[in-house]
Predict the structure.
Amino acid sequence: MIISNQLRRFFSYATIIFLTLVLSVFISGCESRYENPDLSVYQYRDTKEIVKFVHDASQRIKKDGLKSLDYFRNDRKLNFSSDRYLYIYDINGVNIFHAGMPHLEGKNLWNLTDKNGKKPIQMVIAALADKNNPHAWVHYSWWEPGKFYPIPKSSCHFKVTTPEGRVIFVGGGLNYPHEEKEFVRIAVDGTAGLIKEKGTAALAEIESPASPYNFRDVKVFAFTNEGKLLVSPVMNDRLAEFKLMDCVDEMGHKPFEKAMNGLKNSDSVWEVFLTKNRYQRTLVKKSLYLRKARLDGSEIIVGAITDLPQPPG
Amino acid sequence: MKMADDKKYEYSVNEVPPVGHLLLSAFQHVLIMVVAIGIPIIFAGQLNETPAFTASLVTFSMLASGIGSIIQALRLPYLGSGYLCPNLCGPSYLSLSLSAAWIGGLPLMRGITIVAGLIEVFLAPVIQKLKNIFPIYIVGLVVALVGVSIVQISVTSFFGQTFQGDAISNMDIFIGGISLLIMVFCNIWGKGFVKIYCLIIGIFSGWILAMILIPEYWQNLLAVKNSPLFAMPRFQSLLNPVTFRFDLLIPLIVIAIGSTLKTFGNLLAAQKMSEPELKEINFVPIRNGIVADGMATALSGVLGSMAVDTSSSNIGLAGATKVLSRWISVVAGIIFIILAFFPMLTNALAHIPKPVLGASLIFSGCFMICAGLIQMLEEKWDQRKTFVVGIALFFGLSTAFLPSLYARAPKLIQTFFTDPLPTATILAVILNQLFNLDVLYKKIRK
């Protein structure tokens, strides 16, 4: 009798474990079939997932060609959720597929402009050619299907040449995205390249709200080694002069002074500082990224400030 | 397996389990203690520190936790409660340590941690004198709130969230749910080995499941092989200077009082579980336990680690398994100290998936919350108690529900209304006196 009870208990546990394993294997079958891109530069799961999502779609098109569009069109729900959706354009700006806004398909959106004067499609084409921006991130305002208010958006893109020889790009974006350090690195490093290429003329472009160097609360700025402002971190006006090296955070630290010390041994540096937040009792961590650039033969510094991830809760 | 005669315990507080059970039970407690390794890692991350600094901070925090767990359980003269109540890096001092490290670096962080420990030692005899202001129902409330205090960390871990506002994966919820159910099923229907080691069974089942479902967890574990198997802590850092700033004293005292009350609650819960036959609180082991906790906190300052604290989750686990032997805490402390010298093993344990850890914290938290509620309602209830507990809970819990409200509250309110546990405890004690003024007046007249 005792042995029978023990056997029964053993089989009960074994059945539970077996069913769990079967379910696990079934669920794990939903994982990506393609080799993942390098996601180590991203901090947030949301960002990693959107890159993986868009990359998987681009790999499918690369392999199966334009006939895979039927796959996307037949099940739009697969590629459309409240947080993200997939879209495909040709390099002239004609929309080929849009999971969330089918009415855009077939239209040329090359000159489409957001509320800040940014032209998303043109920005994507530029980002795809930028080696400094491996996943072709662009930041702009868009709207949700059926809604009427602007929402901030960050989208990544992959360029694909289909087996039929057509060049297209596949993209997907996050609504209300997290601020990744990588976004700031791309913007600041891109600014350094632009200044090197165009000289003083680049400064006006950097200041423009329509440039890729300004998005949401991120604003790329520039100053000389002596601390003279070339592009202000807070105003679109160089007259708003203040001494960056003397500026302090909420703890009395001088992040610019500290970062400049770090730049003595490196071309770029990240520095953390603390600011107030109306909704939190504790101070909030932010990050300052600075890098060296060349303007008309002289060394200057370009940089930007971004939020850092907060502990959950 | 030896069972206690009265079936109240599998192993009672002074009983020494056989070696196998002693080691396995201690390991089970260590699995919960490793959750706290995340605190020094978060701390170092907030300071933008190097991996070497992080490794050193984790090592010394483990040493301090291990030593604290041992002295808490040994019951030395005037030192240690003699209950199964291990120490770990609690979140109590995280915010102040961070501010101190920002202002004055590690020397100031060490300084405030040492002073915080000494304040706690100083408060221990005061707590003993407060016997009359802690009636049983308030003790029950405090114990329940100790369980409530781990709600945030346990639920965010259960959902696998690392950063505020980030995505939550269905797979993580599935893993956490299965782990929790395995622990609960083993605890309800398991017998002997299965019941006692329900947490180990749940954690390892959940871990295996996570590695099958999410390749990232498997890759994380494989990456552990890059860590050295053995490494000596950098003891030369003990020679670094220690500083202090008096403008931090007031917030430090407030936080130290909060931490002392939390330890008080933990030790009360441990006493309630270890010695349920006691008719009223025995304040001597509690006083000695708070002294031990203060000493461990001061020691962590000397070592340059994060401040350590008694662990609510481990007491909950002891209650769940009815394995209450204090010698398990001693062995768990020794294991923690040994692990501090083996980074590869520590890293492996630190890679237990967050949803699985969250499940284990929820599992142990259940016992704390219910033990407190049962104790609270054991007494005859009246309107005075209703308002004491009700008002204390309203304002205590509001600190967790409405952080943005308290961010704009007057400074004095901000100082004292910090977390549910200290806020509700202070309010309950004050209101209990206030609503019983007539009783007090009659006593004085007599």
In short: Residues 19-231+240-377 of chain B form one domain. The beta strands of chain B are 87-89, 308-310. Chain B has two domains: 19-231+240-377, 380-446. Chain B touches chain A at residues 42, 46-48, 95, 99, 102-103, 152, 156, 161-167, 169, 171, 174, 178, 205, 209, 212-213, 215, 403-404, 406-408, 414 (CB under 8 Å).
